[in-house]
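Possible regression after last week's pipeline update?

I re-ran a chain I had predicted before the update to compare outputs. Posting the input and the new output here so someone can diff against the archived version. Not blocking, just want to make sure nothing changed silently.
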Amino acid sequence: MHLSEVEAFVSISSSNSMSSAARRLGLLPMTISRRLNSLEDELGVRLVQRTTRSITLTAEGELFLPYAQTMLDAEAEAKATIRNCIGTANGLLRITAPTVFGNNVILPIIPKLLDENPGLQIDLTLSDNIIDIVGLGIDIAIRIAPLRDSSLIAYPLASNPRMLCASPQYLKEMTIPTILDHLEQHQCIGLHGMPYWPFTKKNGESYVVRTNARFSGNSVDAVKSAAKLGLGVVMLSYWDVRSDILDGNLQVIILKDAEPESLSITALLPSRQHIPLRIKVFLDRLKEILGSVDISSIEFTR
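New output (post-update):
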């Protein structure tokens, strides 16, 4: 059943003639007649009794008319609702992000977003695991780890270099590493799923260091806390340790002969088609926050 056929029937019922109904809808009388015939064929009943002078509804037509009007009213209400959403961020926005990044970067921007967009709702899932965003109906996934091959749409947000860090107390008690070979003399705190630390040497050669700490953890939070407690050196990304660097809880270590392989922050979307404004508003705000920070301004330990 097509709404255009229902619309033709309702117009006929209120106009009492094919020609008047056609003029009201801006159609040819023949088109109106065809739509009515198609609707009657689908319902299996005659809705209109036609004579040379007038048109009247049958008993079945009288019975169907309020339902037909309800269908048209529902269509009009749905269109009005969608039009009202255009230009404003409305509806439920589902986001997933790594735990530390979500707590440190995403959560602080949510209050203002909600205040500026009264029709917006946000559902945030913090997890260091890779989530099936399509299967779970997630709108945006923020990724810091290297991206796997995927049919998802990647939207770059900002650079996020990996950094070697340790607590000030640990670096006072140990010789500060200045080259790759020195890391063998240190407790290198391991993160599950990352048994090797990737580096790029000054000559462009890739190089990996196997972590050898007596402690390892399954989350960024766990290994960062271990580093702040003085258990060793940790490799994490800038946005994971930024607040701890600024607070003096961790210090960044710079090597003369290599630097950690860099990462970037990326938003993954299920599709690039018909992206709601609520997604764009969130990504624009997040990119603005990330771009406002000058990573080169932090102090390093040499």
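Follow-up from reviewer: compared with the archived run. The first helix runs from residue 3 to 15. Marking as no regression found.
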